[in-house]
Amino acid sequence: MFFALTSDQQEFGAAVRDYLAQRFDLAAVRTVVENPSDDGNPASLWRAAGEQGWTAVTVDEDHDGLGLGLVEAQVIARALGAGVAPGPWRGTVLAADAIRLAGSDEQKAAWLPKLAAGEAVGAFTTRGSAASGLPVVEYGALADVVVAPAEDGLPGLALVTGATASPVGSYDGTTRLASCSGGTAEALPGTTVVLQRLLTDRAAVLVAADLVGIAREALTRTVAYDRERTQFGVPVGSFQALKHALADLHVGVTMAEHTALYAAARGGHRARRRRARRRRRQGQEQRRGAPDDRGDDPVHGGIGLHWEHEAHFFYKRAKRLAGQYGDVAVSRERIASLTVGA
Prior knowledge:
Layout: H1 7-23, H2 26-33, H3 43-51, H4 70-82, H5 89-102, H6 105-117, E1 122-124, E2 134-138, E3 145-149, E4 157-161, E5 164-168, E6 177-181, E7 184-187, H7 194-228, E8 230-231, E9 234-235, H8 240-265, H9 269-288, H10 311-321, H11 328-340
Parallel strand pairs: 1-3
Antiparallel strand pairs: 2-6, 3-4, 4-7, 5-6, 8-9
Helix pairs in contact: 1-4, 4-7, 4-8, 5-6, 5-7, 7-8, 7-9, 7-10, 8-9, 9-11
């Protein structure tokens, strides 16, 4: 069976990539990374997210969204990962998804149009609870609404508003983290299975797409660098050890891209095994690409270790995201459970 993005989906992804290349390149990313005290959400980039429909992608048309699906959302996520773009896009989309899937009519009417337009910032976390506090929330300081577990150990979700946020440091300068406490919690009524769906069917897919975007862009930049850098009078990319390593990485990244796309396109129980395999592959490719735990630095030589080089943007972002919603070990456990039973 031939499976690929449609022309419309390809154009959607190209539009996001083109915007980042023309208006928010790595120089702009560096500005965010080197100013950890700011909110990490450049106004022009967030405005574009709202105007171009990035935040409205999965919101239904009745609530001013585009009414598209997870495939289109992962197209955006992959482009944002390739550009190591900062901002609360993923948290806003997941918060909107939770409200769309589990919210009351009143909650949907109150929040979905604002989230779709980028007029409100959303966040999503599975750490802590609305009752006991939320220790780590991406863009928690900016969030108008946080979707979080209602109580420790229970499957229900709640909307948290008006929480007090305190900054939490991160080695990944392309994000901002905060702990949140207090505020007002309002239960989402239809949450029996929504938390698991958000984790396995949606949050993990969007994180995976971000990771494969990072992986492809980092590999592309590495290949370009190894074609230009010379040693002993020839490009270092002509050395057999590097050629074989980069070829293997290309195969691994390509497989990760395909499995992430297929996982986004599939739904229900049958897709969970493929999602778990996708997470395992991505974790494996990240580790294969980092033989000495320095990402793509080894094939950049000494320059890859410099703060002035962009390699660490990709590596730190990938390192932070790799364990979210299930690392390699968790994915293997999930594969075993879905294949041979608990």
